């Protein structure tokens, strides 16, 4: 086993077709020799790697004792670049921090709470400081997953992460399990010890519009009625001709939710699928009956500034404690990518330039983001840029 002498961090990538059409290729001539029980390997990749996992298998063979975690994306983040059909990889060997990697199955949304509870119980123990969760993006109810985690983990444990993506197709996602991509699973990495520092930030930048409506009928993450009227026709009315592109076009118009009329905190929810028979909408997280819902739309400049605000929140949570290499895991919603289009990389640039100098950034565009709202317990978010910074002191 490698002797650890200090925190080390390297990022690199894999592309299916190297320049010149020579076939698959890595951006480094050889993998960094950083394998150890205190090494974290994060892999964010295109959905197509589920059908051809040879590149990921190479990593698993090279890092046999490391914690290897990752998931599929709706676009891979590497530094300030957005990529498709690649793997974005970070290898971080800690000098002092202990790591633990666990998984749980999630075959249907009904499994979500028990999966979160199981992950938390597997990770629970002395010195736990943070948890990075990467989940199947389609078979999970993110709100129930969060409830399962929060019901077990201490309040001072920082929980962040995201739901895997599948572009704008919403067909199949994968999460790494035993070093190989598989669907229907959730993985979680636990960070232990007094030297690890984990910062977090999550911001949106969307504008609300139209009337605020009461959720008069819902069940879990399924919305049936708003103000006593079927939800799907009402939603289609706002989309107009874009309704033909559902569910993908729903990413352009998420919902802002408040628990009640006096609640100043709002969470954002994104549509995952529609049910024409029941005239309902299925969201990535719960839509509580009795809550207040309002449509949102994009403001380009505010979306990009939202990424910078997320980075500022992350820096604030670190309290200046960045002595060694700093890794940032960026999880941004696929809806933001669809809206920003050619300007998408601007939010990656803004987050990276706001973070501590020398920070290395990897991540993915997701079907949901996991982070505390500002402080305290974690929540499920949609349509945000969520950042997690990891470093040692």
Short description:
With 393 residues, the protein is an alpha+beta fold. It is 19% helix and 38% strand.
Q: Can you give a write-up of this model?
A:
There is one protein chain. With 393 residues, this protein is α+β, with helices and mostly antiparallel strands. It folds into two domains: 287 residues, no CATH class; 91 residues, no CATH class. Helix content is 19%, strand content 38%. It is built from seven helices and 28 strands. Strands 15, 16, 17, 18, 19, 20, 21, 22 and 23 form a nine-stranded antiparallel sheet that branches. A six-stranded mixed sheet has the order 6-5-25-24-28-14. A six-stranded mixed sheet has the order 8-13-9-10-26-27. A hairpin with a 4-residue loop joins strand 21 and strand 22. Helix 2 runs parallel beside helix 3 and helix 5 packs parallel to helix 7. It starts with 7 loop residues before the first strand and ends with a strand.
Q: Notable features of this structure?
A:
globular, 393 residues, alpha+beta, six-stranded mixed β-sheet, 38% strand
Q: From the alpha-carbon coordinates, what is the Rg to the nearest angstrom?
A: 20 Å
* Assembly state of the chains shown: single chain
Helix content: 10-25%
Number of domains: 2
Instruction: Write down how many β-strands occur, each being a DSSP E stretch of 2 or more residues.
Output: 28
Distance between the termini: 23 Å
Beta content comes to: 35-45%
The assigned structural class equals alpha+beta
Characterize the biggest β-sheet: 9 strands, antiparallel
Number of helices: 7
Shape descriptor: globular
Low-confidence stretches: 18-22
How confident is the prediction overall: mean pLDDT?
A: 91
């Amino acid at each position: 086993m490698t002797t650890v002498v200090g925190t080390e961090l390297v990022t690199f990538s894999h592309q299916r077709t190297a320049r010149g059409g020579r076939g698959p290729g890595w951006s480094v001539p050889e993998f960094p020799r950083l394998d150890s029980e205190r090494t974290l390997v994060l892999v964010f990749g295109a959905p197509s790697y589920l059908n051809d996992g040879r590149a990921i298998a190479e990593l698993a063979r090279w890092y046999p004792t490391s914690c290897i975690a990752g998931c599929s994306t709706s676009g891979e983040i590497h530094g300030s670049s957005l990529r498709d059909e690649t793997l974005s990889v970070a290898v971080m060997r800690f000098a002092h921090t202990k790591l633990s990697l666990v998984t749980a199955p999630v075959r249907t949304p009904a499994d979500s709470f028990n999966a979160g509870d199981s992950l938390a119980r597997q990770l629970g123990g002395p010195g736990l400081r943070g948890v990075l969760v990467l989940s199947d993006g389609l078979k999970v109810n993110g709100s129930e997953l969060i409830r399962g985690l929060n019901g077990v983990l201490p309040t001072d444990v920082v929980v962040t992460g995201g739901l895997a993506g599948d572009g704008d197709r919403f067909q199949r996602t994968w999460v790494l399990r035993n070093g190989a991509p598989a669907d229907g699973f959730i993985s979680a990495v636990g960070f232990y010890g007094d030297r690890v520092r984990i910062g977090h930030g999550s911001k949106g930048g969307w504008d609300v519009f139209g009337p605020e409506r009461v959720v008069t009928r819902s069940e879990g993450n399924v919305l049936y009625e708003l103000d006593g009227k079927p939800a799907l026709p009402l939603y289609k009315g706002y989309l107009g001709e874009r309704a033909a592109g559902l569910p993908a076009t729903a990413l352009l118009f998420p919902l802002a939710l408040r628990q009640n009329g006096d609640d100043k905190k709002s969470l954002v929810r994104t549509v995952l699928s529609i049910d024409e028979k029941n005239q309902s909408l299925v969201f990535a997280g719960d839509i509580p009956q009795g809550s207040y819902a309002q449509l949102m739309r994009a403001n380009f400049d505010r979306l990009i500034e939202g990424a910078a605000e997320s980075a500022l929140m992350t820096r604030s949570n670190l309290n200046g404690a960045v002595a060694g290499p700093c890794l940032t895991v960026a999880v941004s919603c696929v809806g933001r990518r669809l809206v920003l289009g050619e300007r998408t990389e601007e939010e990656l640039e803004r987050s990276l330039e706001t973070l501590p100098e020398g920070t290395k950034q990897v991540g993915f565009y997701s079907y949901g983001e996991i982070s505390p709202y500002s402080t305290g317990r974690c929540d499920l978010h949609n349509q945000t840029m969520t950042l997690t910074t990891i470093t040692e002191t």
